[in-house]
Amino acid sequence: MTSRVLRAAAAGAALAVAATAFAACSSGPETTPDDVITIFAPQGTDVDLEENAFTKVLEEKFDVELDFETTTWDGAAAAEKRQISLASGDYPDAYMLIPWVDQFSAEELVKLGGQGVIVPLDDLIGEDTPHLTAAFEKEPGFKELATAPDGKIWGIPAWNDCYHCSYPSKLWMNSAWLDTLGLEQPTTPDELRTVLEAFKNEDPNGNGQADEIPLSAAGGSSLLSYLMNPFVYTAEMYSNAEGVTPAALGAVDGTVTLQPTRDEWREAISYVASLYEDGLIDEGAFTQNGEALNAKGNSADGVILGSVAVMHPWFVTNDHEDGRYTQYDAVPPLTGPAGSDTFWSAGGAGAAPGATFVITNRSSEAKQQKLMQILDYMVSYEGHLQGEFGVEGVNWARPEAGEVALDETLEPSFKTLTPPEGEGLNNSWGPIAQFFSDAEFRNSQVTDTDVYTPEGYERRLFEATQLYEGHESDERFPYWEVAVTGETATELATIQTNVENFVVQASAEFVTGVRDIDSDEDWAEFQQNLTDLGAERYVEIYQEAWDAAQ
Fold first, then answer.
1. Cα–Cα distance for residue pair 361/351, rounded to 1 Å
2. 356 and 264 inside one domain
3. Distance (Å, whole) CA 41 – CA 387
4. In contact, 166 and 346? CB cutoff 8 Å
5. DSSP string spanning 309-348?
6. Are residues 110 and 201 in the same domain?
7. Can you give the pLDDT at residue 541?
8. Helix (H) or strand (E) segment spanning residue 134
9. How many whole angstroms separate alpha carbon 546 and alpha carbon 550?
10. Domain hosting residue 312, numbered range
11. pLDDT band, residue 483 (cuts 50/70/90)
12. pTM of the shown model
């Protein structure tokens, strides 16, 4: 797979779905009239898909009525509701999902296709889908992602060439605090410790209270990846029910390696644990969600966050008189024992093998054609702008003379607008409609040249990400090039879920002192736990599949 696919193919290992989950599907569901199409989709808190402005556009343009079965943007809840929907036998005509919430994995597509629950799209793609066909030709990797391990196209994924998403393990540090204390951005793990100690002990917010939080995070994934990479290649570890990424794996001299079995990994965790023990890492870093982190970033008591490990600085808003919105800048990868070129690049977070769009066997031939026309419209430039952003003149506008694109070598093509508070919220489908955001589309967006304004936020992310590009590790395991199918995939699904989620849990336990990383006994127990969960077989399956793919 090409480097462009690597950037666009973030996390998506093929996992099997137990056949029993879909046992109720075999009898075939009843369908609705051809002019009524039912769709399962995630729905944001400010969106009513039934009354949405873009829904109305599609209904009028394609002479259909769209009825929705909705779930939330919470990944665990969405996954559960989707499985229940499929297992009930009374599922909709189509599923339109969000990649980072709960899309179909490649192996799920093969499983559902083999059961006849979803229909192949190969014969529906062609002259009647000119925009999708053109997108496949423009970005061959897009078609690669859409093609399942059995060679068929069972669904369409989202192609989102998101540059800042490609390097999610960033550290954002309060530059105003550094200036106050006369410090520079750290360049090594030891220098980072010195800065965090100063944040904790030297009252950088100047309120006379010891209320500063030197380093925080939400969920701990970016935190561990950023802090551990100077010692050993460490991908972000996602704690989710499916364990969809083999994040704990690396590739050392052509050999698939479980990174937590290495001495370098132990050294890295020991470093992080020492920061935690000294009170330099927020106690909630591994357990709090984004809402809790946001509350700290926007504390009414003043600025209390010294640094935060997240993809981008969403944890502060721009409505504070103290100017905290402008204070956080990205810190480049640290140079540790393994150097600075051990950093992890994930690829675009909105693109993964599998599908966000599938058509079920409930859909008649007439509905299948309508659904493909709707999809094709969302791939088109006009449909994309309306579907993802909303109404022209309210949510987005054409560029004006003198305005600059994010990539200044491109002609600017559109700019997003901020409607008055409470307006324009139900005008688009957002990421549900985001099927083809290639680099040209994303980077031709008008962006303010002042990165510390809300209008310049995307440029702020773009420039920050440039600090991380070029520091990729040679030990990245290219699992996106590996296909595991059939009974082996079913076996892998269970082992991968168990191993990956255990690594996430144990990592947090080592950092917080529940397990003692400096104890040989605790370390040996951890290694035995991995073995008991099937770690050796886990590595063996991926090694065999990788060897076969080369």
1. 25
2. no
3. 14
4. yes
5. ESSS-TTS-S--TT-GGGSEEEEPPP-BTTBSTTB-----
6. no
7. 97
8. helix 130-138
9. 6
10. 169-344+475-549
11. confident
12. 0.83
The Cβ of residue 2 has, within 10 Å, a number of other Cβ atoms equal to 12
| Residue 215 sits in the same domain as residue 257 | yes
Same domain, 328 and 358: no
Report the SS3 class of residue 113.
helix
Residue 123 has φ and ψ, to the nearest 5°, of: -75, -10
CA angle 534, 147, 348 (to 5 degrees): 75
CA distances from 276 to 58, 224, 273, 437, 506 (A): 52, 12, 5, 40, 15
**How would you write 460-491 as a 3-class SS string?**
HHHHHHCCCCCCECCCCCCHHHCCCCHHHHHH
The number of residues making up the chain comes to: 550
For residue 92, what is the domain's CATH number? 3.40.190.10
* Cβ-contact 76, 341 below 8 angstroms: no
Instruction: Report percent pLDDT > 90 for the chain.
Output: 76
Interhelix angle 189-201/263-277, rounded to 10 degrees, is 10
> 55-90 pLDDT, tens per residue?
999 999 999 999 999 999 988 889 899 999 999 999
Whether 150 and 202 share a structural domain: no
Burial, 142: exposed, middle or buried (Cβ in 10 Å; 0-12, 13-18, 19+)?
A: buried
Structural element, H or E, at residue 498: helix 486-512
Report pLDDT for 83.
93
Give the E-state strand segments of 61-194 in sequence order. 65-71, 94-96, 159-160, 171-174
With the CA atoms of 519, 525, 529 and 530 taken in that order, what torsion angle do they form, in degrees rounded to the nearest 10? Answer: 60
Judging by beta carbons within 10 Å of its beta carbon (0-12, 13-18, 19+), is residue 405 exposed, middle or buried?
Answer: buried
Q: Please count the helices (runs of H) and the strands (runs of E) in the chain.
A: 19, 14
In tens, the pLDDT along 30-42 reads 678 999 999 999 9
